[in-house]
Specification:
The chain is α/β, with parallel strands linked by helices and about 190 residues long. It has one domain: 3-Layer(aba) Sandwich (Lysozyme-like). It is built from 4 helices and 12 strands, in the order ββββββαββββαβααβ. The strands form 4 sheets. A 6-stranded mixed β-sheet has the order 4-8-7-10-6-11, sandwiched between helices. It has a two-stranded antiparallel ribbon with strand order 1-2. Strand 7 and strand 8 form a beta hairpin. Helix 2 packs across helix 4. The radius of gyration is 16 Å and the shape is globular.
Length: about 190
């Protein structure tokens, strides 16, 4: 939170948009936070999510300097989890339809990308900004702030090394507990 003249001003993220997402959530609500690393820069991710070749998106991206970009509205499903099967996955949060078919995790998760590489931990500024964005979502959707709600992408999609050591999810979880929310940009 920024302060001026002893008043607290909310911090806002910047809207960037993405071309690939699914409108709505098929009647479901977000219940989990999927943690990713960009394997690149925030500006590169802005471009990639608006490139017709990407076939990917996330709800938000966090820059090394703490800047927050929004790509997909939280009421819509970003294309970030990528699970078409749960074979080999560690995650216990998968949902199944009555016919036994796996429900796409994108329908009940929020995806957050972090600037950097899988083999190097993100900055403190990125941790704090990520915690603020997640806090906003938790408050908006009444998502319990318990450690099991924070999921590494690789736990859903075992073929990916994401976020690897870039994001210490236990540390991020603890920061969210005391974070001030970061709100979406309003016009």
């Amino acid at each position: 939170m920024a302060t001026t003249n002893n008043q607290i001003n909310p911090v806002f993220s910047k809207w960037k948009g993405a071309i690939y997402f699914t409108s709505g959530r098929a009647g479901m609500n977000p219940e989990y936070f999927v943690i990713h690393v960009m394997d690149g820069t925030l500006q590169g991710t802005d471009q990639w999510f608006n490139n017709a070749q990407s076939h990917a998106s996330a709800h938000s991206g966090i820059g090394s300097n703490g800047e927050v970009h929004d790509y997909v509205h939280s009421t819509d499903s970003a294309w970030h989890a990528g699970a078409s099967t749960n074979q080999g996955a560690k995650w216990k949060g998968f949902k199944f339809a009555p016919n036994g078919k796996l429900i796409n995790p994108n329908l009940y998760t929020l995806g957050i990308e972090h600037e950097g590489r899988p083999n190097k931990e993100i900055t403190e500024a990125a941790y704090l900004a990520s915690a603020g964005k997640i806090k906003y979502w938790a408050l908006r959707y009444n998502i319990p702030l318990t450690r099991d709600r924070f999921v590494a992408h690789s736990d859903i999609y075992p073929g990916h090394n994401c976020p690897n050591m870039a994001v210490n999810i236990d540390k991020l979880f603890k920061l969210v507990l005391t974070a001030a929310p970061i709100y979406p940009e309003t016009k």
